[in-house]
Design a protein that fits this description.
The chain starts with 6 loop residues before the first helix and ends with a helix. The chain has helices spanning 7-17, 20-40, 54-79, 84-88, 92-96, 102-123, 125-128, 139-166, 170-194, 199-230, 245-251, 264-267, 282-291, 298-321, 326-345, 350-354, 358-362, 368-389, 392-400, 402-406, 408-435, 439-467, 471-478, 485-491, 501-505, 511-545. It is built from 26 helices and no strands. With 546 residues, it is mainly α.
């Protein structure tokens, strides 16, 4: 019943593996991995395999680390909507009323969502086998790395399924899943690179320790998910869409958001008890006071706690102990905004379509630009305040650390990069919400575009620096990341010395790239918002004619 005759598993497999997205993702995945091997593969006509073994080891490390990061990004996107998607489609009660056991439902959802990832992993075997002829890499190390990937997929998928069962919206379960998985990815990548010289220890850890931890953690999460489906507290979702926030505050454990006190009212102001001003935007007022937190503040509280827990050690290490690496902390803040920012704006227009209220909204006396601006400012206000919570350590380090105080131009530039990146992230999410009809599709499209613009150029850049450190190639490749805030952070001059080899390669950094990044990003922001207005204006004219 769990695998052979599980209708949930069969239905989900057919729905996932026969879509165009499945074939497109496999093609893109294989092309990306093949490009990594092609860029990093040695170009010497003759090689001494007995001496040049470091190249093969570095290539395998980069290959599997890249796969590990890709898996951490893809797994939640498949599994985070398994149960919350049923709630959004109003089929949650029908699923619970079926004769299936809760455990069968959970296992079917998990296996179906991870099967496509397993296919991707096994399809990468022929590519990684190209590294074996270079020498210095054992077949057992390759097999152990694949074992680590498989159990990492199991753990990440279980986390996403648990979050999908806990939240009513796929967007909320997706962002919480990413925030929980992010520290695991950082620790896993640090361990893989840090233990590169201890091959036997790394082999034992990923073959014995990782599977045990993954199976135990996944078993606990799946058991909790099945128990929640057996006694669901959120049954009858059609009459329980809005949560009483005062009652929620009396029942929460841990962080409590006091919406009438500072600084909580900056991102979650209390409900309005008086009349609006005459010149107020009613769309903004409705979004910020009622709509954004109508499902409760659980997701918001988890986001704050998880991000701050991870930010504390990073702050201590990167800002006070090693200030020349302050750019990496800024990169973490940008990653946080990438994960959180689209959540509050990717459903701005698509949610109106899903509720079939967009035409009604467009028939009001409000201009389309007022509607878009109200939606954008309300969502951006929450994401910006949450992001700035992670920026106060930068200002504290700027005051207390003499080295960062002398590099005030760089610190100011970092702050501007975070602000500009947060704005375009929200505007891009608003644009996707305007183009697509479903919020889940809008959310995933936003993340896909951001990954393509931000992370892929950085991966190509560091691959070039690692395997082909030619100044000419470095100057050529860096312009591929003109739209990436991470590339702007890397290219911003830092006059604090360092003995790291990577910093030696970046000594030629100048301000020209950073200034051009600001210009391109600001222009793209206005262009995207203008496109949103064009789409809404056209929809408004069509609606008025009908």
């Amino acid at each position: 019943m769990f695998f052979i005759d599980n209708p949930v598993l069969q239905r989900e497999l057919v729905g996932n593996l026969r879509t165009f997205r499945a074939f497109a993702l496999m093609l893109v995945y294989q092309i990306a991995l093949a490009a990594v091997v092609l860029i990093a593969y040695p170009r010497e006509e003759r090689m001494d395999l007995s001496e040049n073994t470091a190249t093969a080891r570095t290539l395998v490390d980069v290959f599997f680390l890249g796969q590990f990061v890709l898996v951490s990004l893809i797994a939640p996107s498949f599994a985070a909507g398994t149960i919350s998607g049923e709630k959004e489609r109003k089929t949650y009660e029908m699923l619970l009323a079926s004769p299936l056991r809760p455990g069968a439902i959970v296992i079917g959802k998990l296996v179906a969502s991870l099967t496509h990832l397993l296919v991707l992993i096994f399809c990468s075997l022929p590519i990684v086998m190209l590294c074996l002829p270079l020498g210095g890499v054992s077949i057992y190390e390759l097999l152990a790395a694949f074992v680590a990937l498989l159990f990492a997929i199991l753990l990440f998928g279980s986390i996403a399924v648990f979050c999908s069962c806990r939240f009513k919206r796929t967007s909320a379960s997706l962002v919480v899943s990413y925030l929980v998985i992010l520290p695991m990815v950082i620790l896993g990548g640090a361990f893989w690179l840090g233990a590169a010289e201890e091959g036997r220890f790394r082999l034992i850890a990923i073959v014995f320790a990782l599977p045990v931890f993954s199976i135990l953690a996944s078993g606990i999460l799946l058991k909790m998910t099945a128990d929640r489906l057996l006694y669901p507290p959120d049954i009858g979702s059609q009459g329980n869409e809005v949560i009483d926030l005062e009652q929620e505050q009396t029942q929460v454990v841990g962080l409590v958001i006091q919406r009438d006190q500072f600084p909580d009212r900056l991102f979650a102001p209390p409900r309005r008890k008086t009349l609006m001003n005459d010149n107020a935007n009613p769309v903004y007022d409705k979004e910020i006071h009622a709509e954004l937190f109508s499902q409760g503040t659980l997701m918001l509280r988890l986001v704050i706690q998880i991000s701050m827990i991870l930010a504390v050690p990073l702050m201590a290490i990167l800002l006070f102990i090693a200030p020349h690496l302050a750019g990496w902390y800024i990169a973490y803040v940008v990653v946080f905004n990438i994960l959180v920012g689209p959540v509050f704006t990717a459903g701005s227009i698509s949610s109106e379509r899903e509720r079939q209220t967009l035409e009604l909204l467009l028939t009001t006396t409000l201009k389309p630009s007022q509607i878009l601006m109200g939606k954008l400012i309300a969502g951006y206000r929450v994401s910006f305040v949450l992001t700035m919570f992670l920026m106060w350590p930068v200002l504290l380090a700027f005051v207390l650390n003499f080295q960062l105080f002398n590099a005030w131009q760089t610190v100011l530039t970092y702050v501007c990069i975070v602000i500009v990146a947060s704005i375009i992230n929200s505007v891009l999410a608003l644009f996707c919400s305007t183009v697509f009809r479903r919020t889940a599709v809008s959310m995933m499209s936003t993340y896909t575009i951001l990954i393509g613009l931000y992370f892929i150029p950085m991966a190509i850049y560091f691959l070039t620096l690692t395997f082909d450190p030619n100044p000419g190639n470095e100057q050529l490749v860096r312009w591929l990341g003109l739209a990436s805030p991470f590339m702007a952070i890397v290219q911003t001059p830092m006059n604090i010395g360092s003995d790291l080899p990577i910093m030696e390669l970046l000594k030629a950094r100048t301000w020209d790239f950073t200034f051009i990044y600001f210009g391109v990003t600001i222009a793209a922001t206005f262009g995207l918002f203008r496109l949103c207005r064009v789409f809404i204006d056209n929809h408004h004219r069509l609606s008025s004619r009908n």
